Amino acid sequence: MKAKHAAWVVLEVVCLLCAVAGVALVYLPAALIVGGVAGVVCAERATADRGGGRRR
Question: Where are the transmembrane segments (predicted)?
């Protein structure tokens, strides 16, 4: 099951990099913003997978 999850993560990262590269070809500052937002989303997902944060 973990290998299947890892394959999906790799596919997701490759698609995201292609999208950011496509945006960078048009307008570099927008690509930097999209990359930053994607980094925040990635960090939030990693924290949620580990069960971090307080739950009420």
Answer: 6-28
